[in-house]
């Protein structure tokens, strides 16, 4: 079966750095997305990785290791508005998107 | 700058009733899809369309129908509502498929009594 694992919930402090991990076991791999979803709202696109390595976009960075079936989302200089769920999504060999259940990130002052 | 528009935002139905969730996008996107989101689970694909006149089933299509008569519109029909269909439904679109970031509507919160 296809599976995506990410922590259910994490807590971090405003101004700090947090790393949200995602491991996956899928039928092939055609890329990995991260989405942000605030409570009661729609998911919004954050990043896309298809090659190994780190992609940086402002305060957010996403890392991929295809050989390990592993990705992480790194959030720097945390702000209260970063409180949200972060969804890890893998595209398998049939170009189907497999969605993780999401990591709820709580930011404390 | 509407993007993806879903209506209604909230709906309560009785078991056995039918209804249509509307979805429209104004970005000329070819690819559109419907998901449901349930607590503790990832989004699950119900149906999708790669262009006008073309639809296909996703992971959980039973109890739902779709049509795509125009590029802009992609309605989702619940044929005979069941309590198991209580969920949040999201419509999404992208320029030309899964490789592109999905643009989501605001969602429809549906309760079946």
Helices and strands in order:
The complex is a heterodimer of chains A (109) and B (113).
Chain A: E1 3-5, E2 9-13, E3 18-25, E4 32-37, E5 44-49, E6 53-57, E7 60-65, E8 70-75, E9 84-91, E10 97-99, E11 103-108
Parallel strand pairs in A: 2-11
Antiparallel strand pairs in A: 1-3, 3-8, 4-5, 4-9, 6-7, 7-8, 9-10, 9-11
Chain B: E1 4-7, E2 10-13, E3 19-25, E4 31-37, E5 44-51, E6 54-57, E7 64-66, E8 76-78, E9 87-94, E10 103-104, E11 108-112
Parallel strand pairs in B: 2-11
Antiparallel strand pairs in B: 1-3, 3-8, 4-5, 4-9, 5-6, 7-8, 9-10, 9-11
Radius of gyration of chain A: 13 Å
- Helical fraction of chain A equals under 10%
Order of helices and strands of chain B: EEEEEEEEEEE
Count of β-strands of chain B:
11
- Alpha-carbon distance between the termini of chain A? 40 Å
Largest sheet of chain B: 7 strands, mixed
Concise summary:
The complex is a heterodimer of chains A (109) and B (113). With 109 residues, chain A is mainly beta. Chain A has strands at 3-5, 9-13, 18-25, 32-37, 44-49, 53-57, 60-65, 70-75, 84-91, 97-99, 103-108.
